[in-house]
# Entry
Amino acid sequence: MSLAPFYRGKVRDLYAVNDSSFIVVATDRLSAFDVVFPDPIPGKGKILTNVSNLWFQALRLSGLHQRFNFTDHILETNVMRFPDGFQNPDWAGRAVLVKKCKRIDFECVVRGYLAGSAYKEYLAKGTACGIELPAGLKQASRLPEAIFTPATKAETGHDENIPFAQMQAALGPLADRLRDISLAIFHFASEEMKRAGILLCDTKFEFGLIGESIVLIDEALTPDSSRYWDARTYAEGTSPAGFDKQFVRDFVESIGWNKEPPAPGLPGEIIEKTIALYSEIEGLIKATLRL
# Structure
């Protein structure tokens, strides 16, 4: 057995265990605009892992797995119960043992509000990821209903928003199932977070297959994969205060970075603020889900 990863992603490292499972370790690396930054965010990997595990557990208890016929990839979250040779104490709190799946190479994005790349497209074309939207919307406007806007899953470079029809052409009826599951999870999480005074702006999911069974993989509703906004300070026409890496995105855009490698270094105060925001949303999610 080797403790060298067989794959290094933007944030996570993967370690082979056997033919049916592997270990995912969430590092403290930060990526934005699909580029990894040189400065780690201390403790970020543990926060992402805990938040994902909380949501995976909440989804199992919600009944959505049975209603929409899917599962998740988690086998074990306690490092000391990992297979022999993989009980690495340095991984405690940041690693999970998961099922090996065939990854579906699309990101399943759900948007409840107009922000990010969708807002920029709306300004130019009146659409969000090719979907016609009403006139007169502003930055951060709540959409009439949540929309499903898939993207390609790029190994390097930027992911690309695509029309749902393109995903349907590639996957057939499976695309419709992934859309329905993604929207259902988004609505469930949105209602849960409202109780904490938090608005879920948008999020992205990844899925895999074990045979014909759909499996929710990677991360779930973390501040890396989602925009969480504070309802108390939310206002249309602004970039609302949130608990996610939009804070970093706003900073690097303000200094004129072209969003291509290499990423700029982050000042200490930006790193500290990011840690504080991630820690705060972790606590709010834990308190809200009561797990």
Observations:
- The chain has a mean pLDDT of 95.
